[in-house]
Amino acid sequence: MITFNEAQILAWASPLIWPFLRALALFTALPVLGSRTVPARVRVALAAFIALASQASLPPMPVVALDSPLALMLVAQQLVIGLSLGFAVRLAFTAVEFAGEIIGLQMGLNFAGFFDPLSASTATATSRFFGTLVAWLFIAINGHLLVVMALVHSFSAFPVGPEPFAFLRTMLPHQWGAEVFSTGLWIALPLVTLLLFVNLVLGAISRVAPQINVFAIGFPVTLGMGLVGMLLMLPWLERPFTMTLERLIENFR
């Protein structure tokens, strides 16, 4: 007759519980795979599969009684690190969407806003276009595999321990928000410069030929030049997005 006690069950379950919780927290905040269109059961299954498949690469996990205060602190630690990793990836997406907001403002398209059911917020046409584009780019460059790799490496960089908030004191994830503005302005700067030059030309035309209605021709010219500029900048969009994503994920390695 096969018998086992509580200590043996904890020794078998501990290597799976903590990676599963950290991966589940990641898929809660991760763009694309963590969106509302992905069912919760799929995310739970993916987290369980990653926890099981990564056992050979993970360091030894502490065996802690699940009804102890230390177990509650370990659960909080896994949630904080997993959510922070998903937050870091989402910042890279937000930076590109912020660039779309700036470009749309210069093109005069910010009045064309609509409700985005995925993010439960109002998004402009250019921001939604850039967001959809980087979502496809994220899958095309195997960004999801990079995130899973960073999740596995995070157990070596931030092992399961009794200090759940040591990660926050070390990495200061609340300061990563500066990446949104710096990267977004960096992406949008060429097109903003082009549209500024177009506006200067239109202003010069209005001074030279006052009989021309600049308000009638200004919007289609600005819109047309903005669309052409967006078309020309799309091949170079991958590099800043990839650099930002790798720079933020590197914190967990």
Short description:
The protein is mainly alpha-helical and 253 residues long. It contains nine helices and two strands, in the order αααββαααααα. Strand 1 (113-116) and strand 2 (121-124) form a beta hairpin.
Q: How does this structure look, described?
A:
- This protein is mainly alpha-helical and 253 residues long.
- 70% of the residues lie in helices and 3% in strands.
- It is built from nine helices and two strands.
- It has helices at residues 6-29, 40-53, 69-107, 125-140, 143-157, 166-171, 178-208, 214-233, 238-249, and strands at 113-116, 121-124.
- It has a two-stranded antiparallel sheet with strand order 1-2.
- A hairpin with a 4-residue loop joins strand 1 and strand 2.
- Helix 1 runs parallel beside helix 3, helix 3 crosses helix 4 (125-140) and helix 3 (69-107) packs antiparallel against helix 5 (143-157).
- The protein is elongated and about 95 Å long.
Query: Which outline best applies?
Result: elongated
Number of strands: 2
The ordered H/E elements are HHHEEHHHHHH
Strand order of the largest sheet: 1-2
Mean pLDDT: 81
Terminal-residue CA separation: 45 Å
Proportion in β-strands = under 5%
Q: What oligomeric state is this?
A: single chain
What radius of gyration results from the CA coordinates? 24 Å
Structural class: mainly alpha
| Main sheet characteristics | 2 strands, antiparallel
What is the tally of helical segments? 9
Helix content: 55-70%
Low-confidence stretches: none
